[in-house]
Amino acid sequence: MTWRAVSLRVTVFPNPSSTDWYLSWADVVGSGEPESRTTSVQQVETASFELGRIQLRQQVPPKIDLVYLPGVTTESTGQPPDVGSLEEAFAALRAPAIRLLSTQHPVMRLAIGTQLSIGTASIREANELVATRIRTTRFDLKNATDFLYQINRPRESRALPGLLLNRLMKWQAVQCRNHLRTRLRGRRPQPLSPCVCRTRR
User: pLDDT tens digits for 125-174?
Assistant: First the structure.
């Protein structure tokens, strides 16, 4: 079994007192013609990117998200959509992330989040997998449903001594259904796919 990247996100929180924190698509992504959706408090730009899509979300109070996520699919694989392995996802998002972090705007906070998944044959197998992967705590998940485990393990930064980094991790055994971009008239709903989701920030 191999962990697959469901999404990868880089978030920056500009200084709230800054008046010119907004970034253009060209500043961060650099190419492509994004679809744009704007509300009174948020702008979301989305375009095809590598194995999926890339989104640039900007909202007030100042917050900027750069997100790499799966594309819209018309075929079901029986597994949650993904953008490849974690290494492949990091490599794909590296250049836009560096451009985001290289801007001259003062950044008050920074967050990096990943969501990973492993497909299983059943929800029981997903529970068993979770129980073996969380090694610091023992769980009896026999016949369990709706399992969710979240913990924060702060660590001191190796690069910046004295800086405390939050390491928030969430484990969940779920069943998911792919929603395809097709007309579903006369078609059966897609089957539920058990999997383990692991989110790290």
Answer: 888 888 888 888 888 888 888 888 899 999 999 988 898 999 999 998 87
Measure Cα distances from 45 to 33, 82, 152 in Å.
9, 20, 31
Domain boundaries, the chain: 6-20+42-200
The rounded radius of gyration (Å) of the Cα atoms in the chain is 19
Strand spans (E) along 15-96: 35-38, 42-49, 52-59, 63-70
Question: Phi and psi dihedrals of 47, rounded to 5?
Answer: -150, 160
Q: Residues 79, 174: contact at Cβ < 8 Å?
A: no
Among the residue ranges 68-77, 110-119, 162-171, the one predicted with the least confidence is 68-77
Q: What span, in angstroms and rounded, lies between the C-alpha atoms of 49 and 68?
A: 8
How far is residue 151's CA from residue 133's CA, in Å, rounded to a whole number? 14
HSE-up (13 A, CA, CB side) for residue 174: 16
pLDDT tens-digit profile of 26-52? 999 988 899 999 999 999 999 999 999
Residue pointed to by tokens 């299983």: 120
Least confident of 58-67, 88-97, 124-133, 151-160: 124-133
